[in-house]
Amino acid sequence: MINLTVWNEDGCAQNEEVAKVYPDGINAYLAEMFGAESDMNVTKACLDDPECGLPDEVLENTDVLIWWGHCKHERVPDELVAKIHDRVLRGMGLIVLHSGHYSKIFKSLMGTTCSLSWRDGDRERLWNIAPNHQITQGIGDNIVLDVEEMYGERFDIPEPDETIFLGWFSGGEVFRSGCCWNRGLGKVFYFQPGHESNPTYKNKDIQTVLKNAVRWAAPYSIRKEPIDAPHVPVSPEEEYAKSKA
Ligand code: ZN
Predict the structure, then answer these.
(1) Which of 178, 201, 231, 235 has its CA 20 to 30 A from that of 244?
(2) Could you give the CA distance from residue 63 to residue 144 in angstroms, rounded to a whole number?
């Protein structure tokens, strides 16, 4: 069972435009979608919950954390970001969606500005350029999104360990839309589609990508203690030689 926490800066639809597409907000929609999977145990969390929805007992029980944020990145306390960062290094998976590229946690794990260019209301063709990757299973050559916000290069990120989707927009822009990194023992996936007033998360292929991503990012185990640098006073070979003496 994967303990999945779905985090959003808003616990409900933040305005009328969003409510037209997701009456209860994006977080409720995604939580319900993941909750229908028999191997996922879903917790909903948002900024206005006590301790931003991520008190220690929730965070320390999360295998994979999904992050959607847009206007309120600065309201996430630095201490919480440090805790999430630490847990990723110990093995927790992190999936950062759309405008989460500017979240504190993504920027802190990337170490760069994570800036990009953007324009509302474009059309996107999302190319699957890694058909043998776990996250792209069940997806064809490309996914067409009739309306999606354009995110364009240059995307100021460190070179991904794997780039699995390339976005093309009708304005001619291209974007590294699906990128994977290892950070410590944790896996990080950034996925570009998902503007709040577009029905992107209702697209079946997008849903398949998200579910695959959760299973890909799920850790075999998560360390209890931070990773340190142990001093080894006696080498294993020395010990072995002594045992044979
Ligand atoms: Zn957006």
Answers:
(1) 231
(2) 31
